[in-house]
Amino acid sequence: MIHREAGRKLTNTEEELYEGPVYYISHHEVLKPGSKSTPLRIVFNSSASFIGHVLNSYWMKGPKVLNDLISVLLKFRENQSTLVGDISKMYNSVRLSTKDQHTHRFLWRNYETNRQPDHYTLTSVPFGDRPSGAIAMIALRKTAALLENEYPRVADVIKNIAIWMTLLPKNQDKVADGIKLLNTETEKILGLIWRPQDDVFTFKVQLDFTDKGKQKGSISSITSCNVSELSNLTTLTKRMELKQVAGVCYPLELCGAVLSARLREKIVNSLGFSFEKIIHLVDSAIVRAQIQKESYGFGTFVANRIAEIQSKTCKSDWYWIPSYQNPADFTTRITSPSVIDSDSMWQKGPEFLYQPFEKWPVKQEVEVKEIPDVLVRHTEVKVTEEKSRTVMNVAKLIDLNRISTLQKILKLTSLLQLIRKKHTIRGIVHCLLAEELRDAENIWILHVQEDLPDDVMYRFKRLRPHLTPDGIIRVGQRMNKWTEDNWNMTAFALIPSSHPFAEFIVKAFYERDHAGLDVTLAKIRSMAATDLSR
Fold first, then answer.
1. What pLDDT score was predicted for residue 181?
2. Spatial contact of 6 and 42, defined as CB atoms under 8 Å apart
3. Measured between alpha carbons, how far is residue 324 from residues 104, 329, 334, 453 in Å?
4. What is the pTM of this model?
5. Bridge-partner residues for 15, per DSSP?
6. Residue closest to 406 by CA, chosen among 320, 283, 502, 492
């Protein structure tokens, strides 16, 4: 470290004269024999506690600047040739400021136990700091930005990578002259094992059943020699059989469609390709039919997943395919490992994928007798003519753009109601009663609810809407048990958030104590905190 100037020894004078913050951290070695660049790494424990202080608790983690591994693997397959390399001692290439150096002091005496240890300080970013990864990547990209005008293509590559490994050719015939390459059979890369000669990714799996007493024979790992033996493991097959129980398969099919939508988004955003057409295949006619419907027409579980699918894909991209043509089903039922080997349809895909799309065994018109989890058909709600006339009178007489607070709106509405009832302005200038303010509030709720859709009872079915005798649509019957156990004994009025009256309600709650967002929302949702909360 001292030779590489990643650390330096402090003088006695510097120790005595320095007046800034000081912190000493412990260190230990981490052996990694498989690493070609750093088989032994010195790690400084910035997470250790000393008198209640932890150095890492003073640092922010920093922004997410690392490209995720899935995106990097996709980009690895984007071009015909690939170079992977390693930035040796990457963290130690970023210098620390003087102030940060003294919060990274450490002791060392070179195993000479008969003397006091010397005081050192780190001069570069250590491996154990919480923001080390972000700092190193930001420094790398900053370096690329400084030389972007001179080396634009190099800068672009650096900005879009996450990990560099040993220089190896993906296609040795197309490597430029002058580059020294290593010729190895396998190389660890991106958490996988890469065989450069065959350009194939492999991985090792370790299975150990000894902890729970489910070890079968001497099988502790999957290799090419004993992979067939796994088909005899009753422990695994019984778990797979549980997934075939009625009522489980249907949600799994829907969750599989969600995963497909997420993969589509990841692939499109990661690759620089322009896709002419994207096709999603499902063998569940029910799931495909649900995707064609609006999400609010289903229960919460299905609605949330349909909404995500529709936000990431187009309805017209989804096609139905027969189950026997769907290789994804292989791993959802009891399947011999030999059926999903490297040459299987599960890994290479069915044969029709290599044919023109017109010959694919897919279709979009599939008959579905009944779609599960659909809410009841819509019910229209009409306000009586008398109530509607009263509400319209209020809307015509009061301009919300000329009033600043909710309290003024309710007071003015109450006064107009008194004038309407008494047909005079005499004797109405008095302290308004709480009941009169509540009536004014109900009038405005009736007014704003006119903006609700005609199928409100259907669209908000999950909230159990109901029409009260005063003509207001309220929700919250599903919370009856909660209201019985709490002080809140009122139902919740349904108010469209787009109406200006909703802004006055939010403003009224916020201006009471200027609490934060969460507190204000909690008070609004409490609905019975005050007379204005419904």
1. 61
2. no
3. 62, 8, 15, 44
4. 0.56
5. none
6. 502
Tell how many helices (H) and how many strands (E) occur in the chain.
17, 17
CB 526 within 8 A of CB 502: no
The pLDDT value recorded for residue 245 is 40
User: What is the pLDDT of the chain when averaged over all its residues?
Assistant: 76
The token duo for 167 is: 């220089």
Q: Which residue is listed with tokens 């040739």?
A: 81
**The token pair that represents 259 in the structure block:** 């995963």
End-to-end Cα separation, the chain, in angstroms: 66
Determine the Cα–Cα distance for residues 198 and 195; give it in Å rounded to an integer: 6
What is the distance between the alpha carbons of residues 50 and 100, in angstroms, rounded to a whole number?
A: 18
Q: Which amino acid is at 334?
A: I
Residue at 31: amino acid letter: L
Domains of the chain by residue range = 7-159, 205-241, 258-359, 385-526
Query: In 3D, which of 199, 189, 140, 151 has the Cα closest to residue 167?
Result: 189
| Least confident among 148-152, 265-269, 361-365, 438-442 | 438-442
Are 236 and 230 in contact, with CB atoms under 8 Å apart? yes
pLDDT at 226: 40
**Which DSSP string do the residues of 426-477 spell out, in sequence order?**
TT--SPPPHHHHHHHHHHHHHHHGGGS-TTHHHHTGGG--EE-TTS-EEE-G
> Which one, of 427, 302, 313, lies nearest residue 371 by Cα?
302
Name 439's Cβ contacts closer than 8 Å, sequence gap at least 6: 414, 417
pLDDT digits (tens, 9 = 90+) for 112-124: 889 999 999 999 9
